[in-house]
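Q: How would the structure tokens look for this protein?
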Amino acid sequence: MNTQIAPTTDARQLDEAVEAAVLLLNAGFSVALPTETVYGLAGAAMNKEALLRIFQSKERPFFNPLIVHLPSADWLDRVCVVSEEDRSLVARLSATFWPGPLTIVLPRKGSVPDLATSGLPTVAVRVSAHPVFQRVITAFDQPLAAPSANRFGRISPTAAAHVMAELDGRIHLIVDGGPTMHGIESTVVSVRGDSMWILRDGPVSAEQLKPFGKVGTGTAMPAQRPVAPGQLKSHYSPETRMLLLKPGVPPKIERPEPWGLLAFRTAENMGPYKHIEVLSESGDLREAAATLFAKLRALDAMCLQQIVAEPVPETGLGVAIMDRLRKAAGNA
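A: Here is the predicted structure in token form.
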């Protein structure tokens, strides 16, 4: 299979990319599309063959459910069963954070294939804010399942080149919408009455959710089988062995081996590392989140013996960044 990258830098290219993507989606194939979080591998959410191709291309286990992206919030009742108890909170969350990086887990309707939900009685849904994704899904006029466009367990892609490195020869088309804005996957929440439970930390923080009701946190998988995307304890992993430092431990080494450092911000005397990538020189958590996967991918390509990652402050968006770092190091 010959994988093509479709640019979208001008109106003509965008029109051609959207047309090509919709043709493939209608034929049951999957297409890599940019979202505001990371690039997603999109396929028709109501087409079992399309869903199967997503799982096969990613080598994703079938027990790990997908996020279903809706063309608009108006589609919610076509895919989900929203109880009267939950409707007020769901309406306020969707009105505030959609389109955007918030995924809501709700009881599903019978029309949603088991493959999309891994057989669970619930489905994870959101509306993407990326203009290219919106153009494609509006033209397709159907929900799209779109997990991150990488091989399962690997570093999520935040640029078209990252997708090509992961899925070249496995899919037909990558639509290049430039670097993603947030750089980490959406926040996933379940709702019950006036309460929310964060199942996966992301760009929408607990602090942002608290004005809407009670918020519970704790993203560790409660059983062998995840109940929402992003709950596996080992995920987002580089091929290079990775060590996550504890807070307060300086990132210094006295070893001659070729190690690399993923630093939060620039500091003096960071040690004799072969290569250093800095998430944000100013210590800005939004910049750190946006660059996290790209910097980790750069270190992974350096033929290092080990990557040492410095922790970030675990407040606000830092909670989501630390979640990804722990899973990348395999110690979530």
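The chain has two domains: 4-216, 242-329.

Residues 44 and 184 are 23 Å apart (CA to CA).

Upvote if useful.
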